Amino acid sequence: MAFSLVGCASLDSDKVVAEKVEKAKIGPTTAPYKSITNFSSGLRCMDNLLLDFGVRDVAVIVEDLTDQTKKINTGTKDMLISAVSDMTRRSRAVRLVAYGQDSGNTIGFLYQALRREQYAVIPPFALRGSISQFDDTVVRRNLDAGVSFGTNLTLSAAATAQASILGIDLTMLSTQDLSVLPGVGSRNSVILFKQGKGFDGEAQIRKFGINFSLSTATQEGQAQAVRSLVELAAIELFGRLAKVPYWSCIGASDQDEAVVGEMRDWYEGMAANPNEIIGYFQQQMRIRHIYDGPVDGIVNPQIKEAVSRYRGALGLSREPKLTFDFFQAYIAAKHEEIASRVEPVPAAAATPAAPTDAPNAVATAALLSLQVSSVDNVRNFAAGDAVRLSIKPNRDAYVYCFHQDENQKISRFFPNRFHRDSRVDATQGVQLPGAMRFDIRMNKRAVPETVACFATERDVLPNLPAALNSGDFEPLPAKSLEQVRDVFVGVTKGVLAQEYFHVQPK
User: Fold this and answer.
1) How do residues 26-66 score in pLDDT, each as one tens digit?
2) DSSP code of 343?
3) What pTM did the predictor assign?
4) Cβ neighbour number for residue 407 with a 10 Å cutoff
């Protein structure tokens, strides 16, 4: 009978474990913000926000996200990489460059490893962080009871409940001097509740007054909690870096006191440097197609008119002022709905200029043209020589430059993460790389390479197919520069200028 009872108990245990595994496979079935195991919907929401606010070419190097507590054995960095991948499916806004501890410090790795690529590109940002807190069993409660019947039979029962706190800290640094970016960080913690022997439990995260809970019905409950913290941190960290309303992706209200406080911090931080806030709205008004001037942080009549019209569409006074109420309304607005109430700026005409000696001549815009040359008029380069280019349109235009290397791989190197504005002033032009933190060098085999630049009347980068609108310095699926040109011709209806520069070996 004893052997029989042991066998039944074993079978019952296996059945219980199997049922728990099947339940774990099914995942959450209730409303997303009541019982969740991750922030998948929030990551998709962030992808849409990054796309809507025109965020692109954000390059970040990420170190190993270590466990400083030495108590949580999870792949935290891999979880972060997966979260960012899900967060940029459509927008392609963020590119992570990952490396490990054995690569040395950030700057050393950048100069040693990234210079092996065609472009010696230094990501502007570095992400550091760790599992910084694990307070095990901060609260514990035991209940024990027993009943004895004579000397041979005793019945007893025990119940245990305990709570632990797990925390993650992430911070964004500038790779230029490894300084901390003010306000661009994430600090979150989760409370882990365990019952019985630890097989049944619950985890809770509190953010913006909202309680997020998830079931931890397996022994891997801590890893599940870490994944949720990492996904929440990715939403928060990149939302703050890009200044997009990330809180809407986790169910928080724009009227929440903490949210309003964060928006005011963003505004006052930019307003302290007028060029920064003016440049911010120049870029945003261009995305909304009601501003077609430079993004230089300098007030001009076009940005005044654009701000006035957008303020009116948001229900504010039409004063051309960059006030906090305008910033707050702009951040919280549904811009697809606002667009129908704002008249876009018409594209500039591109008709040929009439001869000045012709009778009744009418002044019209000259045909767009573009000049691409080396800074020192050098066309022949030895292996490893720096290539410095001068780009100059005959009038203000939007310029896009692509490079075809010795392996026939094509990538966009202007505009880029260091200079996101594609508009080029005709009087000044632009030098590449100039002061931008990347190099162009003749390949070691001294095989000819080609640079192709296209000038357009308006910013067409957002209108390019996703295959050609991916990150800067990344290989594109285009087979030739002529194929890239055909795409530009289709997007601009043939109104563009183009110029090639052939990098020849000595």
Assistant:
1) 444 444 333 344 688 999 999 999 999 999 889 898 877 88
2) P
3) 0.74
4) 11
